[in-house]
Amino acid sequence: MNNAFLKSTREAPLPPPVSTSGVVGWLRMNLFSSIGNSLVSGALLLFLVWLIPQLIDWAFVRAIWSGESGAVCRVDGAGACWAFVNAKFDQFIYGRYPEAEHWRVNVIFLLLAGGLMPLALPTFRYKNHVVLFMLTVFPFAAFVMLLGGTLGMPQVETNKWGGLLVTLVVAITGIVASLPLGVLLALGRRSDLPVLRIFSVLFIEFWRGIPLITVLFMASVMLPLFLPDGVTVDKLLRALIGVALFSSAYMAEVIRGGLQAVPQGQYEAARALGLSYWQTIFQVVMPQALRIVIPGIVNTFIGLFKDTTLVMIVGLFDLLGVVQSNFTDPNWASPQTAMSGYVFVALIFWVFCFSMSRYSVSVEKRVSFNQR
Predict the structure, then answer these.
(1) Each residue of 300-348: pLDDT tens digit?
(2) What was the pLDDT predicted at 123?
(3) Closest C-alpha to 121, from 369, 370, 362, 335
């Protein structure tokens, strides 16, 4: 037998074709995989080629970065009026909070950032301690420092709070309160006790059936009419309660979807092991349900964060409300003032919402890897 064409050594595998790997392969697979996709991708690329240079020109090249009044932004050909944002920046962050007490707000911001950053690190060992601190010590410290009236700090009424401070207070309170309330309501809706089930269903459907604007309006305007004479409730507190109850109804439905997605065999296996009802729920079922509905939970959080702008209708000036109120300042009247203010607000909201979205993606990847 002729062995002239047999090789005695193994050849290294050839690299994949250039058209299926690298940047070219990614573009071909994702943007130009068919005639239709190629036409859509080409049209979008042409639009971006036209849009991006104009945005850069407006936001950076022709932008006005400093000035004492809107006169600097009223010149012909002026771009974004960042001088307005720079001049009003303190109001956008703190509202009418006294300037001498801004350090209190800054300390709370640092504590919040310092508590959230370790939770975002997958390898951090003491996450349970940080969570306990954020749920117990941090709310108490934030309340004492922001409101004042103790420890030598002058009291600052909530009607002077505003800007990003109010946005974060409303959003964080709603997020922290809606998750445990949503879990309890979801469990109540699936309960075998008719009274508990009916109450949960009525609560969820009631709050889901009315818009958040109506909830805030009722909490701010109508609720005081039903209180006894001389009894008042802080306007911000009323808004916080309304937002928490409203968001908990939506959170309950998200979590109920996760509970229904857990196989029935998990319940049966837990009962076979002799676990009680609460052990079955919180040690077997709920971890799986929450893992399934991570995208829905984060989506609800993002929607709640953006809905904080609605508190403006009840006289609470969040970030958007403070920016809009400054548009009426005649000293800063210019054709570019409003657009620059709205772009600034959009960037702030985008940073927070995008961060929550990216963090949820990383959590999903870690959870799915552990599951595999």
Answers:
(1) 999 999 999 999 988 899 999 999 999 999 999 999 999 999 999 999 9
(2) 81
(3) 362
Domain residue spans of the chain? 156-371
Structure tokens at 32: 């130009």
If DSSP codes are grouped into helix, strand and coil, which group holds residue 44? helix
CB-side exposure of 175: number of CA atoms within 13 Å? 21
Query: The tokens 């908990």 sit on which residue?
Result: 248
Residues 174, 240 contacting (CB under 8 angstroms): yes
> What is the distance between the alpha carbons of residues 317 and 159, in angstroms, rounded to a whole number?
9
Q: How far is it, in rounded angstroms, from Cα 252 to Cα 244?
A: 12
Q: Which CATH architecture has domain 156-371?
A: Orthogonal Bundle (1.10)
Q: Which of 163, 143, 139 lies closest to 151, judged by CA? A: 143
Q: Using alpha carbons, list the distances in angstroms from residue 81 to 53, 95, 267.
A: 18, 20, 60
Residue position matching structure tokens 């609460």: 278
Question: pTM of the predicted model, to two decimals?
Answer: 0.88
For the stretch 120-162, pLDDT in tens is: 887 888 888 998 999 899 999 999 999 998 888 999 999 999 9
For residue 208, give every residue at least 6 positions away whose Cβ sits within 8 Å of its Cβ, in sequence order, or none. 249, 250, 253
